[in-house]
Amino acid sequence: MIQQGVLADSLRQSIIDGEFAPGSKLSEAMLATRFEASRNTVREAFRVLAEQGLIEHTPHRGVSVAAPAIADVIDIYRARRTIECTVMRDCEPEHPAVQRMRDSLAESERRQAEEDWQRVGSANMAFHVAIVDLADSPRLARTYRNLSAELRLVFLEIDDPRALHEPFVRRNRIVLEALLSEGPDAAADALERYLIQSERLVLGAFARMNRG
């Protein structure tokens, strides 16, 4: 029988991969059958995912995947700027995670050439996870893991993945090159500009969706 932690991780990955769309209902019975888990284990996994902001319990309607609102986008980006820019400003350019930044950037550029925008988005997120790993803090890494999962839900709400991900491949290169040639302060400044632009793009997309 699958354990609660394993089930929570599996469901979390299914949600951020887009298997369950934002706002879609989650059936406790269906998931118990699919994962060969007890109903109690599914309920415990739901509790974990609710604490991470990935699902919502609505009275008389059950459990559904969270559907981020504009206020959520603003808060997510506020948290991203606080975490990522602080880590970048205090980092060591020789840290091993810098190689992971290089690798993620190279992957996003390869996938961009193939116009595989889902994988471009995944590589972009890996780049930013590597930035947080520059801090060597398991607690920050855990916090950012949950934050990035909420961010993927935001991205799933937007139906133009190319417009969402393509501009930031180049921005990632600017951040990395600033770190390597000018140092952490210049890279942090470039990263802050990046995140401000990204937030504006996402908020603009949400505004257009709401008008529609």
What profile does the largest beta sheet have? 3 strands, antiparallel
Could you tell me the strand content as a percent range? under 5%
Rg over CA atoms, rounded to whole Å, is 18 Å
- Looking at how many chains there are and whether they match, the oligomeric state comes to single chain
Helix-strand pattern: HEHHEEHHHHHH
Please report the number of helical segments: 9
The structural class is mainly alpha
The strand line-up of the biggest sheet is 1-3-2
Gross geometry: globular
**What's the N-to-C terminus distance?**
45 Å
Low-confidence stretches: none
Number of DSSP E strands: 3
Helix content: over 70%
Q: What is the residue-mean pLDDT, rounded to a whole number? A: 92
Task: Summarize this entry quickly.
With 212 residues, this protein is mainly alpha-helical. It has helices at 4-16, 28-34, 39-51, 70-89, 97-113, 117-133, 138-156, 161-181, 184-211, and strands spanning 25-26, 55-58, 62-65. 31% of the residues are buried.
Folded structure, characterized:
The structure is a single chain. The chain is mainly α. The chain has 9 helices and 3 strands. Strands 1-3-2 form a 3-stranded antiparallel β-sheet. Helix 5 packs antiparallel against helix 6. The longest helix has 28 residues. It is globular and about 55 Å long. The termini are far apart.
